[in-house]
Amino acid sequence: MTQQHLATETMATNASRTPRPEGFINFVPEALYWEKYYSFPDIGYEWNNGQLEEIPPTDYAKYMMYVWFLNALNKFLQVEPIARIIGLKMGFRMALPTKTTIRRPDLGVVLNSNPIPLGDHDSSYGGIFDICIESLSDGNQTEIDRDALIKREEYATAGVQEYYLLDERGIETQFYGLVRRGVYAPLPRVDGIVRSQVLPGFQFRVADLYDKPGPAQMVADPVYGNFIAPLVRAERQRAEAAEARTEQYAALLKAAGLLPLD
């Protein structure tokens, strides 16, 4: 198809979708994507071999599942700082045998051992994420297939070691590990528990993605105790130390006559 500039905004196939930007072109060179569309205001775009693909909006239920998982992962990495995570739709480029794509997963994990580190001020990632987590877009079958089929194949081919797909509906939720380049297999579930092979010690109960237990419940749960309990203990120790300092300071003020005695 030859490049064709549209004189007016073209509405997306689904009438509820956002109109494409003024001046949209059917084929977008990669350089133009990085220059104009990667940071396009209000609308997020991925780039699939010259085609822009709009990142669909989320809803509250999907967001809360994502937040629960992110909090669990973040707590693990506080105790075992073996990787960095990024959840701001950071893009990374995959030069695949049949095409090139730029994807922006909902959450990306980069191991400290990855040959390309994630820098403090990077706005895109120059390597391949070690883990990609996507919150399933389920507005229509095209969106579902993009996350459940197309991205799964792309990530496996690019060498993303694990791919987690979170579906708030409970239909497409799955967790994949790379068997060999280009081939994923579901990670084992033992008593409903998934254990990451990329992040040794990180595990979670699939049902908890839906139940979303809080820290008080998780600290007593052997699934999470190893990485939740140390944080709870540290927080309790900080609170006790702060209380002791306050009491000591009050005693000094009383001794100096600056506070009334009890």
Largest sheet: 6 strands, mixed
The average pLDDT is: 85
Radius of gyration based on Cα positions: 23 Å
CATH top-level class of the largest domain:
Alpha Beta
Number of strands: 14
Helix/sheet category: alpha+beta
What is the ordering of alpha helices and beta strands?
A: HEEHEEEEEEHEEEEEEHHH
Question: Helix segment count?
Answer: 6
CATH architecture of the largest domain: Alpha-Beta Complex
End-to-end Cα distance: 86 Å
Strand order of the largest sheet: 3-6-8-9-10-11
Whole-number total of structural domains: 2
CATH superfamily of the largest domain: tt1808, chain A
Please state roughly what percent of the residues sit in beta strands, choosing from under 5%, 5-15%, 15-25%, 25-35%, 35-45% or over 45%.
15-25%
Q: Looking at the structure, what is the overall shape?
A: globular
Unreliable spans: 1-19
SSE order and pairing:
Elements: H1 30-37, E1 45-48, E2 51-54, H2 60-79, E3 83-86, E4 91-95, E5 100-103, E6 107-111, E7 124-125, E8 131-135, H3 141-158, E9 162-166, E10 174-180, E11 183-186, E12 189-190, E13 193-195, E14 203-205, H4 208-211, H5 215-219, H6 225-255
Parallel strand pairs: 4-7, 8-9
Antiparallel strand pairs: 1-2, 1-5, 3-6, 4-5, 6-8, 9-10, 10-11, 12-13, 13-14
Helix pairs in contact: 2-6
